[in-house]
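Researcher: Predict the fold of Archaeal ATPase family protein.
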Amino acid sequence: MRQVAKRGNMMLIKRDVYLNKLIERQNNGMVKVITGIRRCGKSFLLFKLYKEYLLNSGVGADHIIEIALDGIDADELREPKACYRYIKEKILDGEKNYVLLDEVQFMDRFEEVLNSLLRIENVDVYVTGSNSKFLSKDIITEFRGRGDEIHIYPLTFAEFYAAFGGEYDDAWDAYLNYGGLPALIDMNNAKQKMDYLKSIFDNVYMKDVIERNKIKNKDEINTLVNILASAIGSPTNPTKISNTFETERHSSYTHKTISSHIDFLEEAYLISKANRYDIKGRKYIAANLKYYFTDVGLRNARLNFRQQEPTHLMENVVYNELLARGYSVDVGVVEVNQKNSEGKSVRKQLEVDFVTNMGNQRYYIQVAYDLSTEEKQQQEYNSFRNIPDSFKKIVLVNGSSKPWRNDEGYVIMGMKYFLLNSDSLDF
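Model: Structure tokens for Archaeal ATPase family protein follow.
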């Protein structure tokens, strides 16, 4: 792939959606908790973009208290009482002080520190964290509704494209290959990007998961990650994976352990789970969930940049994009009666890639690399034809085509239009 000149670098990447969420929550009496996978830009959002906003709004630099708890220079401040004393000493007067704490999970008993800070009238608190367990089990429980989460993702394609500085096709190829971690924007060649992604997967993400959860058998969870990476967009479950281990590896990697390890990967924001939803029955189906990677570049790096099936990668990108836009996303199932070769009626499940909801609005979405054949069109449309409601039905295809409606009222939309227009689903 040819190299292109960039319009900017990481320092110029705008994350306006997340910045505006912080601004909207300023001085609301709650701890603003910024969550997301490590290296996705949480620190940049807080210490660069939001701090810059505060300074431009007239807040004095001496009223912004910054502590990066994952750095060696903050080693002593990981002790909760020392950290609290340090912050208290930095509060100069009765004007509003802004406390910015990065990677707060590195501090023991951080909940007590944050609760104590909330009791100081002229303090507004912001923290980042890279593990969902600390949010779900500590922030919500300890703060009793006084924690306000802003979850951020790696760069969406629109954010990536704005910083890329080249043609759409080149940007799309780069994004499908290497994903949207912000540091990649400054890297000049494919080897540098691949080495970076493989290194941080092993030495940051997997190391965090293994050490945090005290996992002894590293080989098992590493193999599990490879299986999930190979199976993006395909239904699976812990029992099925356990059977594979038992048959092919003669390993007693039980489905309970596998389920726990998958939870650990989710808590680290490496993967995300899509539940299966029975559209006609209006209920969730417990079996055979789908898993997607938070960043396709990390997924590709895990498989040494092999198995790069365009349709599955597109599906993963669409899933992440929908989450970043704030939708809840499930995998749809439509049960139909069809006649088999013997003329007997059989029950069959048709799949809708995504059932996307926000409030009372819903969209049904299929992702297809192309619709060039009648067979492919029938495959994508059949599920839609059996959905008994009138919510919008959309097929996303590779390429730059603008949205149009076919004779059945389904919207056909190119990936370029979908990804670069934040309101594209409202066409």
